[in-house]
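Try this one yourself first.
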């Protein structure tokens, strides 16, 4: 498969870059800059850009209050609903007309969303992951995507975690078992036509 064909079978996932989630990252400027660099390169190279965000209906009918991670959201009565400002994408993120937005209901980008249907409709085989947090959406999506036979690459400097040591451990020790790990600069250089 030549580079041009591979780019058209590739999607960049920009995951959970939302106001309430980005607030947990110290100095997110470098992260956001790397994400925007990846998005720009994707648009210029024919790579599909898909934004993934966490979102629930008013009243959180999708959440069982006993859920260990999301139960507190249900009790909040508003967090991550459409009317909550924390659900919006970070202001540094600008979507283009052909970008796709997927709304997920749990940690993995596939959980409760139509992501897999969209990827298959576009004949996507290669996924490029970016987002917050490394221990959450990136890890969950990487594992599920690998199990679904997608070829996965994680942009190590376009992901972040509230705990930088855990981020480093995951990208250096765990992620290479399920996919490739490279920097944004390496990836953008590789996809140029």
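Now uncover the answer:
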């Amino acid at each position: 498969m030549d580079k041009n064909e591979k780019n058209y079978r590739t999607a960049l996932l920009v995951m959970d870059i939302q106001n309430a989630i980005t607030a947990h990252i110290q100095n997110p400027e470098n992260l956001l800059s790397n994400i925007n660099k990846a998005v720009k390169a994707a648009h210029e190279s024919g790579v599909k850009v898909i934004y993934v965000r966490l979102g629930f209906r008013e009243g959180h009918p999708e959440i069982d209050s006993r859920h260990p991670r999301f139960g507190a959201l249900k009790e909040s009565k508003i967090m991550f609903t459409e009317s909550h400002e924390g659900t919006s994408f970070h202001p540094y993120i600008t979507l283009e007309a052909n970008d796709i937005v997927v709304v997920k209901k749990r940690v993995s980008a596939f959980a409760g969303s139509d992501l897999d249907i969209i990827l298959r409709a576009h004949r996507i085989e290669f996924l490029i992951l970016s987002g917050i947090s490394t221990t959450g959406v990136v890890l969950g999506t990487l594992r599920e995507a690998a199990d679904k036979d997608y070829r996965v690459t994680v942009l190590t400097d376009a992901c972040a975690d509230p705990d930088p040591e855990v981020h480093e451990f995951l990208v250096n020790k765990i992620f290479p078992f399920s996919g490739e790990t490279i920097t944004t600069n390496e990836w953008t250089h590789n996809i140029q036509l």
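Discussion: The beta strands are 10-15, 48-54, 100-104, 126-132, 151-160, 180-182. The chain has a mean pLDDT of 94.
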